[in-house]
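pinning this so it doesn't scroll away 📌
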Amino acid sequence: MENREKQVKLFLLRAGIKCDQVGFTFLKEIILRCADDQSLLRNFKALCSSVGQKLGEDNPVRIEANMNNAIKNAFKNKRLEGLNKLFGAAVVNGTRKPTCLEIIRLGIEYINLELYKDFVWEEEPQSL
């Protein structure tokens, strides 16, 4: 597995998003594409369509809904608190669910700033 892809997967797992949800895969692909070119986020629907074509889903609305569902489940089960540990600051509070774009931007920042190099977990998240 490519190192950057592994780091994105670990980011999402450590952020509390379960890998068995369809939205996990869409979030991973979008973060990977946008890590080098954040201007892709300006046309989010086109980005979702492009990712959907690669992964066999042709409806960008369903892609966004799947990502929102993965984030909503993590938020509802209080698993997004892992983001605060990753960044060493309160980037998520318990009162408002983050949007897809917020999670994607945090993922891009995590990868581009190479925060994974200095981060040590007491225990690793569920296996990849």
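📌 and the second one:
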Amino acid sequence: MAGTAVLVEDNLMFAMRVTPGLQRLGYQVRTVAAGAGAVDRIALADPALLVVSLAGRGAADLIRAVRGHAALASLPVLGYAGHVERELLQAGRDAGADLVAPNSAVVKALPEVLDKLRRRETGDEPDEWDED
């Protein structure tokens, strides 16, 4: 088993598209609402991965708070948003997401995205998904 993946996604329909992909990769998925207490709920899940919708309320602040939490600072963070939402993707990168990717890649190519995230942790990859 890959461990626990915490998903922060306000859109239930999109969460229903991401969750099965994570489960197929062996993750137990916990969904956490953004907002007050979110970092503590994430820490309680003892996650191996954090997946954050950058379109969600306070997403960049949440990523910054995770990076500032002693137990979560090195947690791999994948942020995603629509491919035309360049400012959200940049905000996720600036907040400390290890990799940012468009929604389509998270849904259609999640194994490859997570492989790139693992390579990113070693410094071998850029911090943005390239669909080319």
